[in-house]
Design a protein that fits this description.
The relative contact order is 0.17. The chain has one helix and 23 strands. The strands form four sheets. Strands 5-6-7-8-9-1-2-3-4-15-14-13-12-23 form a 14-stranded antiparallel beta sheet, with helices on one face. A four-stranded antiparallel beta sheet has the order 16-17-19-20, with no helix packed on it. With 305 residues, it is mainly β. The protein starts with 11 loop residues before the first helix and ends with a strand. The chain folds into two domains: 23-156, no CATH class; 178-303. Helices cover 3% and strands 55% of the residues.
């Protein structure tokens, strides 16, 4: 599930907020036993990936650099070498793994606490084969479709590298501040978190993360939906731009967010209100025009060292 996230800053405030948005379908107990996985090309340039963890299945769709991604989590959908994940109106994945007799091997490593470098410690062996059955997907509003009866894939221990880590912000001296419109200054290494919970039958929670890292600004939005006790949906969208994309006052009491597509509009932060105001929205796959500012959002901003 962590693959859905794109935050670049290793601070407890952001990681804690993101973890609250990540769904845990009924029956999900984390990695357990063998993991099954395969990928297929879908329409409109999307890739569909099916991956199991424990008794749950994650069906993810993304395009190009994964700046847009939607993942459907289906609980109680795994039985030995079979996947039976019902997505309701969005389709179904009901397949059985048939081994080919061939294997693939991945190196596994860890990050040394002394040197910080990644060291190889062993290998992971996975069995190759074909998943045969029904693979049907129809994204909301037709953002992606797929129909197939088989897909090459693998089954075995997770080959996830152990050296992956959240990037940390450099503690180097800060560059000179630059002034832009509306008396807003560009302040490096700042993070803003804005979150709203909803009683809507469609949306459960929405999170906006904005951060500056040197001369670059990162804007990421996440949204979760619970359709049933066994079906959760997590959507994510992100964009990167110049530091003026997320401009912050020197006292961190004002900020302006003007991100590029898939975002639209802009949002302003005033410490006196404690929230974002404006017409900022984001176009998630299958769910366009989602608001990211307004009275329902609680916003926090802080420096990151």
């Amino acid at each position: 599930m962590v693959s859905v996230l794109r935050s670049r800053i290793a601070i407890p405030m952001l990681l804690g907020a993101v973890s609250l948005l990540m769904p845990t379908p009924a029956g999900a107990e984390g990695p357990r036993g063998s993991i099954m996985q395969f990928q297929l090309p879908a329409s409109n340039g999307y890739t569909l990936q099916v991956r199991t963890e424990g008794s749950s299945t994650a069906i993810s769709l993304w395009r190009k650099d994964r700046n847009l991604q939607t993942t459907y989590y289906v609980g109680d959908s795994v039985d030995d070498s079979r996947i039976d994940a019902n997505l309701g109106d969005q389709g179904r994945v009901d397949v059985q793994f048939q081994p080919s007799g061939e294997d693939e091997i991945f190196p596994v490593g860890y990050r040394s606490s002394r040197t910080g470098r990644c060291r190889r410690t062993g290998r992971v062996e996975r069995e190759l084969g074909t998943f045969v059955g029904t693979i049907e997907f129809a994204g909301e509003e037709g953002y992606a479709t797929l129909s197939a009866s088989q897909a090459p894939g693998s089954i075995g221990p997770a080959a996830r590298p152990r050296c992956g880590a959240w990037a940390t912000i450099s503690s180097a001296p800060q560059p000179d501040l630059g002034r832009i419109v509306e008396r807003v200054w560009i302040v490096p290494n700042v993070a803003l978190m804005s979150r709203a919970s909803s009683s809507s039958a469609i949306v459960d929670s929405t999170l906006l993360l904005a951060s500056t890292e040197g001369d670059v600004a990162h804007i990421d939005a996440y949204q979760t939906e619970e359709r049933s006790p066994d079906l959760y949906i997590s959507r994510s969208a992100g964009a990167t731009g110049p530091s003026s994309t997320f401009a912050v006052s020197r006292k961190l009491d004002r900020a302006t967010i003007r991100p590029p597509a898939p975002f639209n509009g802009e949002a302003r932060y005033l410490a006196s209100r404690g929230r974002l105001v404006g017409d900022l929205t984001v176009d998630f796959p299958g769910l366009p025009g989602q608001p990211l500012a307004g009275p329902g959002f609680e916003t926090k901003i802080r420096r990151v060292r």
